[in-house]
Each structure stands twice: as C-alpha cells, then as structure tokens.
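Q: Two folds, back to back.
A: First:
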Amino acid sequence: MLKKMNLPNKLTCLRIILVPIFVILMCLPEEINVTKYIALGIFVLAAVTDFLDGTISRKKGIVTNFGKIMDPLADKLLVSAGFIMLTGLQIIPAWITFIIIFRDFFVNALRMFAVGTDEDLAASLSGKIKTIFQLVGLVLALVGFAFGFEYNSYVDFINSYSVMKFFELFVNVFMSVSISAATVCSVWSLVDYFFKYKKHIDVEK
C-alpha cells in the first residue's frame, strides 16, 4: 500500500507516526534535558510535513480522497497532542485546549455527514488559517519549554515583561498572540464548517 501512495500522502502518514513519538518524549522526566529539544525537533518536522504535503499537492495537482480525509486528521492529532501536553505543563490554559479539541471533534463529525456526496472535503480557508496560528503558537511554546524559560506560559508577559530577557519576552508575546488568534479562528472555523455542511445533516436516517 505504501508503494502506491503519492508523496503528499506519505508525508501525511509520517506526520501521524511522529505524533506518538512526540508525546512519549514529552512524557519523559524533565531531568533528561535532551528530550525537550528532540520533542521540539519532532514537532517542527511534523509541522513542516504539513506545509510540504499541501504545497506538493497544489503544485502537482495531486488530490486524493485519502489525502482529503487523512491530512486534516493528521493535523488534528498533532495539534491536539501539542495542546494537551502543554496544558499539562501549565503553559496553555485548559479552556483554550478544550475549545481547540471540541472544534476538531465537531468538525470531524460534520465531515462524516458529507462523505459520499459531491461536497469538497478539503480544508477550508478558515481551517488553514487556524492551523497556521496553532502550529506557530505551539512551536513557540515548545521553544520556551525546551530552553527552560522561567516565564513560559500563556500571556505571562503581561505580569512579568519587566524581568524577562528579550528572547524570552519575544517568544511569550508571539506565542500568546498566536494562541489567541488560533482560538478565535477555531470558533470562526467551527461556524464556517457548520454552515458549509449543515445541508447534509439528516436526522431522520
């Protein structure tokens, strides 16, 4: 099966495989400092595959049903893993993680109603923008975690900017802005997908 896959789909599968590796590394004792950097590298690599498979698909005109379904799933797995692990580290608030994951489950359910129809299952503009903000915010949060910033949590800079070093402040500010934008875009995307797929919801079948 793998030999028959095109390159974008192989990159999607690679991203899925990298998710549990990232989680395992994040769960290892913090005393093993090198694992933080490896986890950051794994997450960045997975995020890059997301960019590459979409770019290659558009450039070569490669569109498959496998890609339409599995690419968004791979994104959700990666993003959910990142938010859950960082919430456990008290870097990202639990309520934000709830919104992100709730949106992903709900949109996935909406997609199921459209399976077998002529509806385009590819990610919408709102979904793509949301994913970009999510990945940027998560990468910055993981950078702070890997480098052991003393102040490294959502909107930490509001109360601690006067004692932060420049790089630490930079990471915290842009992490908080990205995560905030991702949260807003998640709600926007949820509403967008609902109106896109609601015509396929049949409660009588």
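A: Second:
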Amino acid sequence: MNSVTGGLLDTTGRRVLHELVSTPSPSGEETAVAERLREFFHTHDREAWIDDVGNVRAPANDTVLLTSHMDTVPGEVPVEIRDGDAGAELWGRGTVDATGPLAAMATAAVETGVSFAGVVEEETTSRGARHLVAERAPPEAVINGEPSGWDGFTLGYRGVLSGEYTATSRSGHSSRPESNAVQQAIAWWSDIEAAFKTDEKTPVFERVTAKPVGMTGGLADDGLAVEATVDAQFRIPPRLTTDDVRDRAERLLGTNEVQWTDAIPPVMQSPRTSLARAFRTGIRDAGEDPRMLRKTGTSDMNLFAAAWDCPMVTYGPGDSAFDHAPDEHLSLEEFDRAVTILETVCRDRT
C-alpha cells in the first residue's frame, strides 16, 4: 500500500472495505472473506463465528439485523484507487455488488452494537440466506445490503420462478419435414414470449419478464433421439405469486414438460414502517431528498420477507448500474455517507 493510498484509507470502514474487495470471493469460494470478517469482529471485541454453510454470524442487539452477501460474480477487476468525478474511487470486483454494502454494514454493526450476518451464495443459490431464516429467530428489523446509493433505499423486488423445459424426438435425417426436439424447444419459447408479452407502457417492475438463460440441444448419446432443453426464468411483480405464473404457463401452453426448479416470491415493503421512516429522516438530515426504490431483480430480502414478519429495507452504497460490470467501482465518499446513515438508523432503533 503506497502512502497516497494509505492516506485515503484513513477510517476503519475504508480499511475493511479495501481488505474485503482485495480478497476474491466468487460464489462458493467465500471462505477467505468470511475469515477476514470474523477477525474484524473479534478485533472489535464482538462474538463472531462461521456457521455450517459458511455464513459469518455476529449476534448482538437484535433490534436490527444488518446482513449482506459475501460472494461476488466471477471476473477480475484490478483493485486500485482512482480519481473520479466524485473524488477518490475504489475499483474492484464487489465494490458495488455487494462487498461495498457488506463492509458498510460490518462497520456500522461494530459501531452501534447491532447484529450482523454475512451470507454466502446470493449470486447463485441464496444458500446462506435460506440457512439463516431456517436456523435463527426473526430479528426486530432487517437491513439487507445491496447497492441503492447512499441517499436511496429499496422497498421492493420482483420474485423469480425458474424452470427447465425438455423436449425429445426420434432421430432422423435432417432433410425430413417433421419438427425435431430443437425446433419444439424453440417453438415453446416463442409461445412463452407471446403468452407473457406486456404492453411496453407498463413499468418493468409491474411486468412478468420471461427470459431464457440457457439452451442445449442435439443428438442424444445413443444416437436414437434428439434432445433439447431450455432453462427459463420468470421475474414476477408483487401483484402476482409464483404459483400464478406457473399455473398460467402450464394452462396457456398446455404443457407439463417443464420441471420447476426454484420459486422465490416477490416482496414490497410499506414505506410507512418505522424502519423506512428512520431512513427517510436520516437521509434528509444528511442534506438529500430520500429516494424509495423498487428493483426489477431479486435479492435475499425476498427470502427474509417470506420468512420473517418484521420491517425491512435494502440499502447500501454504490450505483447498481455497475453491478457485475467490468468497470465496477465505488466512491469512497459515498461509502462514508452510507456508513453514517446506517449508524444513524441503527442508533434510532436502539
């Protein structure tokens, strides 16, 4: 660390942010980051341990649970501090999604004495969040860590329904006119798109968005059949349930050839909870008009809301336009402001 960089890492929060971002943690490989987080809490005289699935657990005052995910998507973004339009910026994989929010929450947790959990595999299976809700009692409130910008907080996410369509046909010469399994899979996806087509004037958050996320097809290993599969995801607005979308797909298309693999319900929290009010007040007192967000993706907050009946929001520094991007970076000043807001909200509740 050179003297210029060292001078910019002059707070506890900035130092732990830099250390965590400098530790690669793609989904399934979070051990090094988990050990660093556990050490961070021990250094601040807090109980902390790594649980059976790899989550970092630091229980304390359960009036608030601060939680964010430790994993990132793959891809190396060199870790460095650069000058940007908003001052010094930290570049690196995870600065936005979601190591930046994770570091902000760890910092706020040791400063205010509230509970903390760093969870694994949010980017893939949400294994950490699923284990957390199955194993611990509900807290009084949850602040989930994802980028919202320091002056915004997220109240809603669409849900997700995942499935795999499979088609099989007899093998035959490609000159024959009958449709093979690959054609059947393509036709199935065309029917799906038509069935869930939405008026473009409808906000994206209110739509069911169908998306193919993988496709394979070709001659079977035994040479006697043609096989094809389509992996599909449906993003679901809060006005519907995952069962609504599954039933519609099966009813409209008259098919039972889909194996449904996962279903996470949508979430829309009230802006009038005591937790949302604390964020609005804290952001206004810091000099900005608060932004209340609805996001078109899905997060661990969906799972927390389905299991725990308590106020919750999602919050964290960073511009989500840089999620998973090759130029992922975070303003250090914005990080500091987010830590301050988190500390203000936690102290308001404790």
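Q: And?
A: The two ends are 37 Å apart (CA to CA).
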